[in-house]
Amino acid sequence: xxxxxxxxxxxxxxxxxxxxxxxxxxxxxxxxxxxxxxxxxxxxxxxxxxxxxxxxxxxxxxxxxxxxxxxxxxxxxxxxxxxxxxxxxxxxxxxxxxxxxxxxxxxxxxxxxxxxxxxxxxxxxxxxxxxxxxxxxxxxxxxxxxxxxxxxxxxxxxxxxxxxxxxxxxxxxxxxxxxxxxxxxxxxxxxxxxxxxxxxxxxxxxxxxxxxxxxxxxxxxxxxxxxxxxxxxxxxxxxxxxxxxxxxxxxxxxxxxxxxxxxxxxxxxxxxxxxxxxxxxxxxxxxxxxxxxxxxxxxxxxxxxxxxxxxxxxxxxxxxxxxxxxxxxxxxxxxxxxxxxxxxxxxxxxxxxxxxxxxxxxxxxxxxxxxxxxxxxxxxxxxxxxxxxxxxxxxxxxxxxxxxxxxxxxxxxxxxxxxxxxxxxxxxxxxxxxxxxxxxxxxxxxxxxxxxxxxxxxxxxxxxxxxxxxxxxxxxxxxxxxxxxxxxxxxxxxxxxxxxxxxxxxxxxxxxxxxxxxxxxxxxxxxxxxxxxxxxxxxxxxxxxxxxxxxxxxxxxxxxxxxxxxxxxxxxxxxxxxxxxxxxxxxxxxxxxxxxxxxxxxxxxxxxxxxxxxxxxxxxxxxx
Length: 624
Known about the structure:
- This protein has 624 residues and is α/β, with parallel strands linked by helices.
- The chain has 5 domains: 1-54 and 178-251, 3-Layer(aba) Sandwich (Rossmann fold), CATH 3.40.50; 72-159, no CATH class; 253-339 and 467-531, no CATH class; 371-461, no CATH class; 535-618, no CATH class.
- The protein contains 25 helices and 18 strands.
């Protein structure tokens, strides 16, 4: 469908202009809040009308006037008595102008075909029936349960969800419009009815310019249930909004990418679709990674959602690669946490290598032409070490569990890439023993360790964090088995033990860092967590308190704790919500005062002291 759209939002995008001429019958506009989606569709509404489309825009405030109660202080509705027959046209005009949905009910009165469709939907989905009562020159929609019960007013006594569905379906079925722009159609609808509505959209979606009776849709949504992406074409018309960036979409895919993503789409569930809405999604290989990382951050008080982050498990390295490539094309700042064997197998290492950010790092550090070639050097060195080491595995101690696991794992494995991984991991645990068995290879081992650090850093440059200890289980204190080869059953048991430990215990930040070490750093860096630090705001309040106490003291109004609490200048009743007065005493013509913060505002319950001479404006709360 051809529509020449050019939209500028200077305070978000500077001088850049979004331009696109080719559109689908269903277009999704997704992304975090405050990225310009609503302003975009308000301008889109005008431009579509200017190009001959009969547009109906429904804003996210479309139920204004249909609230259940009258709120006099905050404004009131003129619909208390219903819809005035004399101003039906004005309802429609204002609905068009402001994106309101109240005129759906006059439309139902005028168009019996739409009313029948709505009645059938209400009856079969909600066990309700609707009657458009005419009362003293007003149209008053009434609702009744189909089985039994009295009639009641839709506006005053019905849930928002039913009002939403009635109004949305009315405009969907109304042939006066061939283009619907809907801002957050998911409002008040539970997931199953969101799915129902998008199914109804699909029934009549098409190019109205070439096929009369079809409608095109522009859907602004924050709901993964509404992003019904079934084909590559659907994906190409999903427009992703990000802070301070032009909206992005996938115009074209290369042959292999298109085939792989086509195979991904049937598995793209609502959990995966979170990445469309996050400013910094974090992809991990499996559900245990997702759960442990999420529990850890939650227990540490790290606000994932507020930071625009989420953790999405995708089911393996090759899936990580698909999302890596997809997010790169959509200009989404995605991060990935991968096992160490990513270095030796899978497609992700190639995607990392071809990324310009990785290439810049590799060239800067003099690691070679690209990352793949640097990995190739490591593989060759490891293979050379293995050739000499494997005949000597019998010399490893059976009494040392790490040596025993290393020997058995390497002996049982036939695949060279797995052997290289085991060897590399062995250097983390028993390097000295390995070097003692193959003393002529110490230089090669140093070369391997140095290169692998650079490879991990190069991967980090493109948002891929490689677990240097192999995989998640090797970071979990509840796991003490074979670190080189971990069965699915063993993984499951380790996950359950660690999950239970995390949920049952409230560790301090120092304890968490001691327990999980490098893993905490990876999580914080990948998720770029924002924290709420109230100290600067608490400081301002403390400064006010100090100043007020000093003024009241100089005026002779404070002699002891009771007079401090009762002094009007101090207004202790206000401060007592966040402070406890520990001590107030007079000394040598002055005073000292000790205060403690309440746990409601400060879990550490920090204390601070001040006297009549301290400068209120320079006071800073300590860490004590």
